[in-house]
Design a protein that fits this description.
Elements lengths: L6 H10 L8 E7 L5 E7 L1 H10 L3 E4 L4 E4 L8 E8 L6 E7 L14 E4 L2 E4 L7 H4 L2
Parallel strand pairs: 1-6
Antiparallel strand pairs: 1-2, 3-4, 5-6, 7-8
Length: 135
C-alpha cells in the first residue's frame, strides 16, 4: 500500500465513509493478485484506522463485540495491499494478500455454498482442519 498515511488522511477517509446505525460498514476482502473474493466482514472506525495504520486487516467482531485483527488466533493474516470504497462510500473493498485460509471453516474463502443443478452444493472442501488453526 506504500508509505504510511497521515493521521489527517485517515481521518478524512473515516469521515467520508457512511457507517450504518451500528457504526459499521461492510468490508469485502479480495485476494489482490487472483481476484478471488475471500470473505465479507464488518469494520467500525477503529478497524478502519488500525487497518490503514498497520496495513494488517482489522475487523469488528459482532459476536465478540470487539475489534480483532484477522489471523490473531489462527495465524491466517491479511496484509492490506489496497483500500477502496464504493461510489456511495458505504461498502469497502480490501485488496489483500491472504496468508493461509480466510474462512473459519478452514476453506480458502467463505463462499463455498452454491446452487448446482438446482441443488444446494458445497463446492470447496476445507484446506485445513479448523481445530488445527483455532486453538
Amino acid at each position: 500500500m506504500g508509505s504510511p498515511l497521515s493521521a489527517k488522511t485517515v481521518d478524512t477517509i473515516i469521515d467520508t465513509l457512511k457507517f450504518n446505525g451500528d457504526g459499521l460498514v461492510p468490508a469485502i476482502a479480495q485476494q489482490h493478485d487472483s481476484g478471488e473474493i475471500l470473505m465479507m466482514a464488518w469494520m467500525n472506525d477503529d478497524a478502519v484506522r488500525e487497518t490503514l495504520d498497520t496495513h494488517l486487516v482489522y475487523y469488528w467482531s459482532r459476536s465478540r463485540n470487539r475489534l480483532w485483527r484477522k489471523g490473531e488466533t489462527s495465524g491466517q493474516t491479511q496484509q492490506l495491499i489496497d483500500f477502496r470504497w464504493d461510489c456511495d462510500a458505504d461498502t469497502l473493498l480490501l485488496m489483500v494478500d491472504q496468508l493461509g485460509v480466510a474462512c473459519h471453516t478452514g476453506r480458502r474463502n467463505c463462499f463455498f455454498n452454491a446452487v448446482r443443478d438446482s441443488e444446494i452444493t458445497t463446492i470447496a472442501a476445507p484446506d485445513v482442519n479448523p481445530e488445527d488453526i483455532y486453538r
